[in-house]
Specification:
Layout (H helix, E strand, L loop, with lengths): L1 H13 L14 E3 L5 E6 L4 E6 L5 E5 L4 E7 L2 E6 L4 E7 L4 E8 L4 E6 L5 E6 L4 E6 L5 E6 L4 E6 L5 E6 L5 E5 L5 E4 L5 E4 L2 E4 L1 E4 L4 E2 L5 E9 L30 E9 L11 E4 L21 E6 L5 E6 L4 E6 L19 E2 L12 E2 L7 E2 L3 E5 L4 E6 L5 E5 L4 E4 L2 H12 L8 E3 L1 E5 L7 H10 L16 H4 L9 E4 L2 E4 L22 H12 L7 H13 L10 H11 L20 E3 L5 E3 L21 H7 L13 H13 L1
Parallel strand pairs: 23-29, 30-34
Antiparallel strand pairs: 1-2, 2-3, 3-4, 5-6, 6-7, 7-8, 9-10, 10-11, 11-12, 13-14, 14-15, 15-16, 17-18, 19-21, 20-21, 21-22, 22-23, 24-25, 25-26, 26-30, 27-28, 31-32, 32-33, 33-35, 36-37, 38-39
């Protein structure tokens, strides 16, 4: 009996971390082995900063272009360099940091995680559609796994046998059996929303770094569930602004765009159970108090989730709301009279919710929409919180990437507040403020680009969005690109266009309305569709400066001979691709009648491999589908091409 007990204890240890503070998921911030310092990436500056948590001394080192995620691998640090298609290995002897080696990676490497002992490292190569495995000691690449839809976020189960992946296209979640190499999909729970036209099933999109509890029992994926079906109309006198991209104005109902965690219980082998849970991140503390003149609703979109060492809380960064949500993992809280909110048990109207603006649209209770809720504490942070790590004192430290800063979070206070809620004492949601703000790098962007990006990423600025709307430009244009969704605008499907690269070179903008510039579009969208108070021209031009300063995505690598054949096919007169997609940017900047007789602006083909789905209505899931749809001659003519020529044409398009 004693022998069996020992074996059981050893098996349990194999499924748990030895150090409960070791991160299971990818992040922009990492702790030293002694937990007396933290390291963070500085994306724009191309540097890594080290902050001593005792002395507050900061050291910085240049590592390469666009450092994106960082992981501790043994005593070293590995950093993905998005623009360099590589990984920097950093050594730190306590006195000085140095780049010891630069390893080749796939196209636009993003998430990176390591085993607790540093024996294995895993990297998500987003535009290569693969995840690579490295030996953490020899730094040799060992294997690659094909993972579709642009894998970006990673988490490694403590048993080191299962790797979880979130891809940014099609809302794809996967897990990899690291013994067999098999990649399996994870089914996301269905959620819905009631509208005046009936029930709408919501679309899912991952938006941030994922995490597994230290004991390996639960995994969480942060993201948004969106109603892309209900049409976004132009406002009328008697129509509320929340008929746009915004929300109901209350943080406790299912809305058009819903920040959420999708969680799955995990079996003893690290495999996810089939039925997941959608947790609505509905947070509106101080319902009767204004925050900077506005009702504080911290819902936007989550950019990371981190399990606490005790696994009793999820710490969720809300990039556009400048907040960290501390979310209880305990069963759903009561939504009845113990809170400050009046909530209907089924569908009601906004008149059932004080402060919702007297709107006449239906409101959906979370449970009716397929969501659960949890007790939540809000911690206000600096600008652009992106990642959280725990230090030696079990204190949480957040990385505010837009501020180039790290801050200590009042984690113990947040825990106490959560306990009072979960113990049924009727506490309302509480707002705390982060402390110990530490600047870790000087800003390197031009002033107008920096200011424009802050507007672009803000869901709290009244010029950009309605109070409580929980939406920013970056909600739909993730990293300044696109969200992979097709929205319904004025009753017509419209694919979110990518904003990567100098958009001013391909003006006018938008699919069919010939908006003169990005600044004009920013003014229209922020006020008409996001419910903002209205941008002045100068502010809109700041947003344009930021958009025009972004780069085109890198192109996937392909066989050079195949690409050359594809270029020849592209330029053939009978195929006619180049008749509209001409010049250095592959666009004539004109409108043409194409599929369905719709006059559509010719988009640039630069960086097109990164902007799935395709066409103005999002009807083509891949470039191969675009080539196939062009057989009928309504958009060029590919009917005479051989299979080899079609394959070559796709390879050429992906190379642009």
């Amino acid at each position: 009996m004693r022998y069996v007990l020992v074996l059981s204890m050893l098996a349990a240890c194999g499924n748990s971390l030895r150090d409960d503070r070791f991160p299971t998921g990818s992040s922009t911030i990492a702790a030293s082995r002694a937990h007396d310092a933290v390291y963070n990436v500085n994306f724009d500056e191309g540097t890594i900063s080290r902050t001593d948590l005792v002395t507050q001394q900061v050291r910085e080192i240049q590592v390469g272009s666009e450092p994106t995620r960082i992981a501790r691998v043994g005593d070293d640090l590995w950093v993905t360099l998005k623009a360099d298609a590589s990984i920097a290995v950093i050594e730190d002897d306590g006195e000085k940091m140095r780049v010891a080696q630069v390893l080749p990676a796939g196209i636009e490497p993003h998430g990176i995680v390591a085993t607790e002992d540093g024996r294995r490292v895993y990297v998500a190569n987003t535009l290569s559609d693969q995840v690579s495995e490295y030996d953490g000691r020899t730094r040799e690449k060992l294997r690659s796994f094909a993972v579709q839809d642009q894998p970006r976020f990673l988490a490694l189960h403590p048993n080191e046998d299962v790797l979880y992946v979130a891809s940014t296209v099609n809302g794809t979640l996967s897990w990899i059996d690291l013994e067999s190499g098999e990649v399996s999909p994870i089914e996301v729970p269905e959620t819905s929303r009631e509208t005046t036209d009936g029930t709408v099933v919501l679309d899912w999109r991952p938006t941030g770094d994922i995490s597994i509890t230290p004991g390996g029992t639960t995994i969480a994926f942060p993201g948004v569930f969106a109603d892309t079906e209900t049409t976004v109309d132009e406002p009328e006198e008697d129509k509320p602004v929340t008929d746009g991209y915004g929300s109901t104005g209350s943080g406790i109902f299912v809305s058009r765009i819903n920040a959420a965690l999708v969680t799955f219980e995990v079996d003893g082998d690290g495999r996810p159970e089939r039925d997941g849970t959608a947790i609505l991140l509905a947070s509106q503390p101080f319902a009767e108090t204004e925050f900077e003149g506005r009702i504080p609703t911290f819902r936007s979109y989550p950019t990371s989730v981190t399990s606490s060492p005790s696994a009793r809380e999820w710490l969720v960064t809300m990039e556009s709301s400048n907040a960290v949500l501390v979310v209880s993992t305990d069963p759903p809280r009561s939504m009845g009279n113990d809170t400050d909110f009046t909530v209907v048990s089924d569908v009601g109207t906004s008149t059932d919710c004080e402060g919702c603006g007297g709107e006449s649209m239906p409101l959906t209770h979370p449970e009716q929409g397929g969501f659960e809720t949890r007790s939540t504490v809000v911690i206000s942070t600096g600008v652009g919180p992106k990642g959280v790590v725990f230090d030696a004192e079990d204190q949480a430290v957040v990385h505010d990437w837009l501020d180039r800063a790290v801050e200590s979070l009042p984690y113990e206070d947040a825990k106490d507040s959560l306990r009072s809620m979960d113990d049924g004492e009727g506490a309302t949601e509480t707002l705390f403020v982060a402390r110990g703000y530490q600047q870790v790098a000087e800003r390197s962007l031009p002033d107008d680009v920096e200011a424009g990006r802050r507007l672009f990423f803000s869901a709290l600025d009244g010029r950009m969005a309605a109070s409580g709307a929980g939406v920013s430009c970056s909600t739909c244009h993730m990293d300044g690109r696109n969200d992979g969704f097709t929205w319904t605008l004025k009753g017509e499907p419209r694919n979110t266009p990518s904003l990567a690269g100098p958009v001013f070179k391909t003006a006018p903008v938008s699919w069919s309305e010939e908006v003169p510039s990005v600044a004009d579009e920013a003014m229209l969208t922020s006020e008409i569709r996001m419910g903002g108070e209205g941008l002045g021209r100068a502010d809109a031009e700041l947003i344009e400066a930021y958009v025009n300063a972004t780069r085109y995505p890198d192109a996937p690598r392909a066989d050079a001979e195949l690409v050359q054949l594809g270029e020849e096919v592209f330029n053939r007169e009978d195929v006619a691709c180049a008749s509209c997609h001409s010049g250095d940017l592959f666009t004539d900047n004109e409108r043409h009648l194409i599929l369905g007789g719709i006059a559509t602006q010719t988009p640039t083909l630069r960086g097109i491999a990164a902007s799935k789905p395709y066409l103005h209505d999002g009807s083509a899931p891949s470039l191969a589908a675009v080539v196939e749809m062009s057989r009928n001659g309504s958009m060029g003519d590919t009917s005479m091409l051989t299979d080899r020529e079609r394959e070559a044409l796709v390879a050429f398009l992906e190379s642009l």
